[in-house]
Fold each of these.
Amino acid sequence: MKPHDHAAAFGTADGELRVGGMPLSRLAARVGSTPFFAYDRGLLDRRIDELRAAFPERLELSYAMKANPMPAIVQHLANRVDRIDVASGLELQAALDTTMRSERISFAGPGKSPAEIRQAVASGIIVELESRTEFDRVIAAGDELGLTPNVAIRVNPDFAVKGSGMRMGGGPQQFGIDAEQVPAVLRDYAAAGVNVLGFHVFAGSQNLAAAVIAEAQRRTVDLVSSLAEHLATPVRYLNLGGGFGIPYVEKDQPLELQLVADNLHDLVDGPVAERMPEATPVIELGRYLVGECGVYVTRVLDRKDSRGTTFLVVDGGMHHQLAASGNFGQAIRRNHPLVLGNHVGRPLTERATVVGCLCTPLDLLGDHVELPEAEIGDLVVIFQAGAYGLTASPTAFLGHPAPAEVIV
Ligand SMILES: *Cc1c(COP(=O)(O)O)cnc(C)c1O
């Protein structure tokens, strides 16, 4: 996808990008400072509507809030999705501050501390167990608090998902309990007084190949159906993971959602209904829900020519939006989509290299990108910035102030 396509999704008027309907220069004035992140509520809602329309009705949608834990985003989504998944004690507190009921919050991730597990058991959420140690800690917390913990087993599957940006299942993993160990674990802990609701399999992140995601979901349902025979109670919770990707660089094509959704209809109406009739199937998404609704807005501080290359130096950089600099899991650095947000329709008359304000060559936001001729004060906008932006970046590096975040 080209930068122009991303701009069209937000909308433009009088040569300006709009976010939440507001022209960018006015929004910048409203925010009062650059750089900043802005998230478009309408685009968030549109994404959820698309998913709801495509998915089976019985399938529940969970928001993996580590993708964007801004409280206003989490609050907004809490009213629109069915569940929230957290990955730390702090995220748990933020999720509990929303209207989401605690039994609809899950907590995944390796290395949950005894204190975090105690918080989780006290709040009544679903703890997704990654190891025997976590099982022991949950039991200890339940005994101490006089509560029956709710848990699900996170399973490291016996298959790997190819073509995913970040693989998190299959082979040796710090995530989950290996599928072949699960029967013994269930047997050993059968009398532990813990409410085992079901299973969770998360195979990887940033996957744009619908056929690969569909295959992983089929194999997950197969795997869980066979593990279910080792559980004393019916499976009530079936978290099929997610990992839906979004297009970052020009050659990326958007995920074919309908293909994934058709497969989910087959699974939910077929093997899930037949073999696990009491299970609530869940899809858990972070990046796909929020990534495309967000922009990172910076202002041009300097413009200089160096031996034939035009440099635009902006007031933001990789300390806020690490991924755009290629430092977050990209093998080859490619440009994330960017435009001059206050001159969207203008002809692209020059090639410029857009760099951030950090004193390192790594702070490169756009390498020889086609732009209209830019001046000091213009607004450079980076798209696809709604997920793994601010909280996934080294904000303390060089000690610049934190950017504002707004939802419009
Ligand atoms: C990170 C994570 C997610 C979210 O992944 P996305 O690729 O952002 O959708 C979902 N589930 C688990 C268990 C995770 O660790």
Note: The chain has a mean pLDDT of 95.
Amino acid sequence: MKKHNFSAGPCILPQEVMMKASEAVLDFNGSGLSLIEISHRSKDFVAVMENARSLALDHLGLKGKGYQALFLHGGASMQFLMVAYNLLEKKAGYLNTGTWSNNAIKEAKLFGDVVEVASSKDKGYNYIPKDFSVPNDLDYLHITSNNTIYGTQMKSFPKGNVPLICDMSSDIFSRQLDFSQFDLIYAGAQKNMGPAGTTLVVVKEDILGKVTRKIPSILNYQLQIEKESMFNTPAVFPIYVSMLTLEWLQNIGGIPAIEKINNKKAQLLYSEIDLNPMFKGYAKKEDRSIMNATFNLTENKLKEEFEGMCKEGGINGLNGHRSVGGYRASMYNALSLESVGVLVDIMSELERKG
Ligand SMILES: *Cc1c(COP(=O)(O)O)cnc(C)c1O
């Protein structure tokens, strides 16, 4: 039976992308060779890299605006330090909205002073802090647009006179935004774009080259740009699959089209959480994420029954992160409205039975 995959990451990818990716592993472009056994400098793979980089900028509306797209190693976690390595001279600001922000802060402290401009730690990170000011003397301000673990999402973004850096790992390509308000965006592929193993970095070139420290080659954005994202052997398979996903997104109408579906999915699930007395949401309503919905049972004694029903219905990956508990339904781009419908039906059946 096909599962309804609500996993937080690595996560569901479009079925047609899976089909094309598996074909390319056996025979890439009818070449008689596998995608994963040819040179990354071959004409065919260079075309993949160029296409993936170009599609990323296209979707974000950043073509011709001074940005470069890179596919790098090391996950979003590598960007926690790479951002600071390349951009932090004296002092950086961080908005603390959860585990991932904290990890980013920890790495940045190795390179300079870090000020937490605001934090939602006081309430278990169930909301997004809004009333804070951005000091003018920061090298940059770092934010996390979607907090995968807590199910909160930023709906508006701080305005300031310093470069804005955004960890967009779990909601990139999911909603329309003015992406030019960010100077650097990064995202581990495995949440909404492809398999684990590559990270998309979109950077405005004019913020680079300003720190005085020496930067190791592989961690240097400027060098990665110069080498067209092929300083060393790139993660050929994850990049290829990311390219296929970006093509899939383009074919269904791009971010505007997927945003409509994502909103429908989120509305369907959140209205069930709100109307069904068996469930309660975790995140503050106004800050709820359209990607990751966090919720719990109002009575723990229904746990076994609910989880049994989910299992029977083919629901996968619903367990909340260990730091929050309860449940988390991740509704990334490739998850269908139908899958959310199946979950919602189970939730309302639990109410009828209860
Ligand atoms: C998953 C996640 C990360 C960590 O990604 P890795 O690629 O595993 O390093 C960082 N930030 C956010 C918002 C995430 O959801």
Note: The chain has two domains: 15-251, 254-353.
